[in-house]
Amino acid sequence: VPEPFAVLANHPGLFTAGAVHELAAERASTKLPANIREIAVYRVAWTVGCSWCVDFGTMLQRLDGLDIERLEHIGDYAESSRYSDEEKAAIAYADAVTATPPTVTDEQVADLERRFGAAGVVELTYQIALENMRARMYSALGITEQGFNSGAACRVPWAEDGQDQAGTRTPPNFPGLAKS
Predict the structure, then answer these.
(1) What does pTM read for this prediction?
(2) Domain boundaries, the chain
(3) 103 phi and psi angles, rounded to 5 deg
(4) Which fold has domain 3-159?
């Protein structure tokens, strides 16, 4: 059982609401190419430091037939030839939306609208915001990778030493939350 399901089962109403929302968002997200949507979502998971999200997201990209080896270069995407200009724009936007406070510019949105259309910008923004919610919630609840995909691309760089990107301890598992 995916660990988020086991944890969310502690609150059946939110479990159901979350499942319905996830399914509806997935079905409605049809405007962007999968590689654009998935790389932006992956960048959010990687930036926030949600090892479960990185692990699961890598598996989804692999199953979609996308090049997962490039995920090892997500930290230097701007200089990497493994990413298209469209992917680089989506990653930069994911960074701007994820920043606290957000640092999105009018120029950035106009560029994305030229590339993906208005509906594409809304979809990209929605998916980035949704991943921010998931990644932050799962990290706060101590939900960690489960081995959906193996290899170096599935590890957030700061997870190895038990610290998050800011150098603080990663969130502990909350006592009393059944996760098995």
Answers:
(1) 0.83
(2) 3-159
(3) -120, 25
(4) AhpD-like (1.20.1290)
